[in-house]
Design goal:
cell membrane; repeat; Rossmann fold; transport; 17 helices; 24 strands; membrane; single chain; ABC transporter domain-containing protein; 26% strand; 514 residues; alpha/beta
């Protein structure tokens, strides 16, 4: 059988750590080939070898049956290989057009940039794939979903035939995911070959033809997606059976822990209300989930509660005490944990090592310092404990630089730090984004464990399955307002979608529905 890509016996090491251990991957022309594995299984590393970002210690790569030497991404591009990275590679103060043509600019005799041909080609591509995008908008001003479209257009503009998507759905809404899968199928029908890295078995079932599974740096096998169940795939991935049903006991919520009253936040640019008179409570022993399509004020609401932004009016209470204007450290010390939406921007210091990141909110406590000097033995012991308890995987353990860790293990580090402080309220924004099914099961278990310990949990999620499975109460936000407030058993996914899109709403911040 002819393969467009053959990666034979690839081994890639970082020091003594084998990220890829004798892996063979073969991809057919015109197929969507999923690459499945836990966080740290070696998927992104293997694709970085194919894209020329890493050089393997052993193995060979063949494209269309011919052995090739890929030293860098320029070599990969010449061979028709493009890649959309998990963390986008875009220049934030460039326009969409400038970002797409970067490195392939057309200039006049005097070095003046010519964009007419490029603009027409990109507009034709965006129309063909139904990408509604403003070519003159700045990258910093567009949503993450739009940023991903820019990355895809970069590949299509370069006429790449082999397209690598590394965790492409991690930051997308359900609607955007559906649209992306349609685009991927359209590209495959046109003869392009797609490698699709994901943890999400539903997406593999919806999009892929075949799936190769990696576990702890080793190749486990390749299966036909149509004839293989999700249960079999998950067991291949994590080496054990995984439960897809969230089990939680009935519990009666207690006193109000977190209360938000009449919160208003105005846009810095337009002066319009991003948050419009938002009020709700989270009680001890309950998980309240904020559902909605991305960009409807969820991020700004969390920023206002946690102290990243000051609201224009309204109040935030923790255990009956007004904490609206308190510092982030005071809020944290008062019992507020925050698992942020953007782990790179608000959750981690990427150039610090893992143990330094694990004590970011407690380094000043007596446990970790004396007379202003850090107690490194205590810090190291604590980090090792959290690494073990939360299964954080990295090449050098506590001394690993966080920037070099996989996205899922970075997320586990944030969750470990926040939950281990025994908080009163846990504010979790997309806490399982980018995690494999085994880790998702574990994180959900930990959040339910917090709820069963009579803690309050405020969850923001764009995953409707997660919203319906683990919440005790669902608040729907649309255009900065609460338009519905429900118990999961009282609403269908389809009806929830209508509230999320603004087609339905209930009055009075939705309180009449509970």
């Amino acid at each position: 059988m002819d393969y467009i890509i053959e990666m034979n016996h690839i081994t890639k090491q970082f020091g003594d750590f084998k990220a890829n251990d004798d892996i063979t991957l073969k991809v057919k022309k015109g197929e969507i080939h999923a690459l499945l594995g836990e966080n740290g299984a070696g998927k992104s590393t293997l694709m970085s070898v194919l894209f020329g970002l890493y050089r393997p210690e052993q193995g060979e790569i063949k494209i269309n049956g011919k052995k090739v030497d890929i030293n860098n991404p320029n070599d990969a591009n010449k061979l028709g290989i493009g890649m959309v990275h998990q963390h986008f590679k875009l220049v934030h103060n460039f326009t969409v057009l400038e970002s797409i043509i970067l490195g392939r600019e057309d200039t006049s005799l005097f070095g003046i940039l010519k964009t007419d041909k490029a603009r027409k080609k990109i507009l034709d591509l965006s129309q063909k794939y139904n990408f509604k995008i403003d070519l003159d908008a700045y990258i910093s001003d567009i949503t993450v979903g739009m940023q991903q479209r820019v990355e895809i257009l970069k590949m299509l503009y370069c006429d790449n035939d082999i397209l690598i998507f590394d965790e492409p759905t991690a930051v997308l809404t359900p609607q955007e995911i559906e649209q992306l899968i349609k685009v991927m199928k359209q590209l495959a029908d046109e003869g392009k070959s797609i490698i699709f890295i994901t943890h999400k078995l539903n997406e593999i079932k919806a999009a892929a033809d075949r799936c190769s599974v990696l576990r702890k740096g080793k190749y486990i096998g390749t299966i036909d997606v149509k004839t293989t169940t999700k249960e079999v795939m998950s067991e291949m991935m994590v080496g054990r059976k995984v439960s897809f049903t969230v089990k939680k006991k009935d519990i009666k919520p207690g006193a109000s822990i977190l209360e938000v009253k009449n919160l208003i936040l105005k846009s810095k640019h337009s002066g319009k209300n991003i948050l419009n008179d938002v009020s709700f409570q989270v009680r001890e022993g309950e998980i309240v989930c904020i559902a909605g399509i991305d960009g409807n004020g969820q991020s700004e609401l969390i920023y206002s509660i946690t102290g990243l932004r000051q609201p224009d009016s309204g109040q935030v209470f923790l255990n009956g005490r007004d904490i609206t204007k308190e510092s982030i450290r005071k809020k944290s010390d008062s019992g507020m944990a925050h698992i942020p939406e953007d782990r790179h921007k608000h959750g981690l210091v990427l150039d610090f090592n893992l143990q330094e990141n694990l004590i970011l909110k407690t380094y000043y406590s007596k446990r970790f310092q004396k007379n202003g000097f850090l107690k490194f033995d205590a810090i190291n012991e604590y980090a090792d404990e959290l690494i073990k308890n939360f299964d954080i995987r990295s090449g050098k353990g506590a001394y690993s630089i966080v920037r070099g860790m996989s996205g899922g293990n970075q997320q586990k580090a944030v969750i470990a730090r926040e939950l281990d402080r025994n908080p009163e309220v846990i504010i979790a924004v997309q806490p399982v984004r980018g995690l494999d099914v085994g880790a998702v099961e574990y994180i959900h278990h930990r959040l339910i464990e917090q709820r069963d310990s009579e803690k309050a949990v405020l969850l923001v999620s764009f995953e409707l399955d997660e919203v319906m499975d683990i919440s005790d109460r669902i608040i729907v936000m649309y255009e900065g307002e609460i338009v519905g407030n429900f118990k999961p058993g009282d609403i269908t996914v389809e009806e929830l979608g209508l509230y999320m899109s603004g087609a339905k709403r209930s009055g009075g911040n939705g309180e009449n529905k509970v």
